[in-house]
């Protein structure tokens, strides 16, 4: 009975990770996602995902004229794409591989440990 408790304690002490990737460019996001998932599998981690999150759309309206013609407007939009990966069990070298990972500048990586 005590052995079962020890294994449960060991599983609870193993850090769980939640990795979120965000980008304005879908191609860069998908290539970075492939790198992260490949390294996680290589390190022996168990993952859930990648889970696509809803895209966030920000709309900007700008007047074409600077003074008189208020009806003439232009609209610009910025779409943020995001993906999430849950790491349920980490391998022995998971954190080392994640620290040495080269990700392009246009991709934001947020790693939370819980």
Please count the beta strands (DSSP E, at least 2 residues each): 4
> Helical region count?
3
Please write the CATH class name of one domain. Alpha Beta
Euclidean distance between termini CA atoms:
27 Å
CATH architecture of one domain: 2-Layer Sandwich
Task: Explain this structure.
By secondary structure, the chain is an alpha+beta fold. The protein has a domain at 14-53 and 80-113: Alpha-Beta Plaits. It is built from three helices and four strands. The chain has helices at residues 2-13, 26-42, 94-99, and strands spanning 17-23, 46-63, 73-89, 107-113. A four-stranded antiparallel sheet has the order 2-3-1-4, covered by helices on one side. The relative contact order is 0.32.
Layout of SSEs?
Elements: H1 2-13, E1 17-23, H2 26-42, E2 46-63, E3 73-89, H3 94-99, E4 107-113
Antiparallel strand pairs: 1-3, 1-4, 2-3
Key terms for this structure?
31% helix; alpha+beta; single chain; 114 residues; four-stranded antiparallel sheet; Alpha-Beta Plaits
What is the gist of this entry?
By secondary structure, this protein is an alpha+beta fold. Helix content is 31%, strand content 43%.
